[in-house]
């Protein structure tokens, strides 16, 4: 089955999604919707969509669309994911799905009522790089896991949507999801979190966090550490520390380098991510968008009947952990989950 995709927005990340759909197996880009018909038409021509709609509602009314990708501002995710599901479309929603666990529950309740599937789009989790790291941990390659350290920072100018609280901006809301999802994936669910933040003096909205750090106590006995920032040089970091060694992932979120580093004692080795070429990975470099292609292939397969790798329980737990982290930073308290 080939899944016919609609893009619900004319955002920048939608261009990446369009290229990913074009490269993916069993997926085709069928339509784009924006809030202005002229802009939507120009965008559709740019990304190769045969149909453009001037409203989101028009795309959702198109019976030929099987699934929609929702890359809208974070505060609009739940609303439009639910509307798409109620219109009979499957949904792949850009991360984070929501900033409120109750909204995440509402999205999946809507999916169940409609007989459709909703997926939170953490593309990095589906890449063979992440699978390799999980396998190394499961094999005991670095002994017992003691620490998950994750970092992500970007340089977002004043006025950037990521620095607008009303639209779901802020370092923890926009970037923290990656790091929190890594802590949870590798270390298990957190039992407590203590976070601190630096307010954004140029941000739009009360209490906007420009930078933030958090420490998690994990039920597994390990510790999680994250730090994020919106006014720093680009940093993509993931380190897993065990009793017998550590794993360092230099490009954990975009997965473009093709190897992970395994360090034990004074010995370091690079493990190939896809030694057999099963995933058709592109050469390492900034133009490597395999993580998104793999995400759309996995979502298309799930919408055609395959079991998704991550579902309702994971998305709700992610929203709960992210909400607790943001509350801890805002109120300067330790929050139990």
Integer-rounded radius of gyration: 20 Å
Structural class: alpha/beta
Strand content: 25-35%
Distance between the termini: 41 Å
Query: What would the principal axes of the Cα set say about the shape?
Result: globular
Q: What can be said about the biggest beta sheet?
A: 9 strands, mixed
* Average predicted confidence as pLDDT: 95
Strand order of the largest sheet: 14-13-12-11-7-10-9-8-15
Oligomer class? single chain
- Topology, number of strands: 15
Order of helical and strand elements: EHEHEHEHEHEHEHHEEEEEEEHHE
The helix content is 25-40%
Number of helices: 10
Would you give an account of this structure?
By secondary structure, the protein is α/β, with parallel strands linked by helices. It is 34% helix and 29% strand. It contains ten helices and 15 strands. It has helices at 12-23, 37-47, 56-60, 77-86, 101-114, 128-138, 171-174, 176-187, 290-303, 312-331; strands at 3-8, 27-33, 52-53, 67-70, 90-94, 118-121, 145-155, 190-199, 209-218, 223-229, 231-242, 245-249, 259-264, 267-272, 334-336. The strands form two sheets. It has a nine-stranded mixed sheet with strand order 14-13-12-11-7-10-9-8-15, with helices on one face. Strand 2 (27-33), helix 2 and strand 3 form a beta-alpha-beta unit. Helix 1 (12-23) packs across helix 9 (290-303). The model has no long low-confidence stretch (mean pLDDT 95).
